[in-house]
User: Which sequence fits this backbone?
């Protein structure tokens, strides 16, 4: 069985055409900084904008696109875990059962000392409707909301 999620909102192409995609291994968009931001699915574009905002505000953020949640490359993740004050997962669906869940399980099993912040949706039905851009902003899943939540967690 395979699950494939396709966007339909005209998402920008953010991964270079020559990027090597290996099942389970994240694509890295910079590894320097105090925070490691892991995105999945259509949230890579938001992650890139959040990284830019975070750097502009004086912080440092590494970024990786975890294009496959299962399998998850635990060795890749654990090799980097001790290098960051905080690991942040960013996904556009429920935090339970997704990227945040997988990362929290690995951290619980292996330790590592970094804090974890899981950004995504609560497991409830939303009581608001709107465009994808509007919903991201209302739920704190746009670049400004992501940066604000990371800064608050670091304070």
Assistant:
């Amino acid at each position: 069985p395979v699950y494939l999620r396709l966007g339909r909102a005209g998402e920008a192409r953010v991964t270079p055409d020559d990027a090597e995609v290996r099942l389970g291994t994240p694509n890295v968009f910079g590894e320097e900084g105090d925070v490691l931001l892991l995105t999945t699915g259509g949230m890579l574009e938001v992650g890139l904008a959040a990284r830019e905002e975070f750097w502009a505000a004086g912080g440092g953020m590494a970024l990786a696109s975890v294009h496959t949640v299962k399998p998850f490359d635990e060795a890749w993740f654990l090799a980097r875990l001790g290098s960051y004050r905080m690991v942040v997962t960013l996904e556009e669906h429920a935090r339970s059962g997704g990227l945040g869940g997988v990362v929290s399980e690995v951290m619980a099993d292996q330790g590592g000392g970094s804090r974890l912040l899981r950004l995504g949706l609560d497991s409830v039905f939303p009581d608001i409707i709107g465009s994808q851009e509007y919903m991201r902003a209302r739920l704190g899943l746009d670049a400004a909301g992501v940066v604000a939540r990371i800064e608050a967690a670091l304070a």
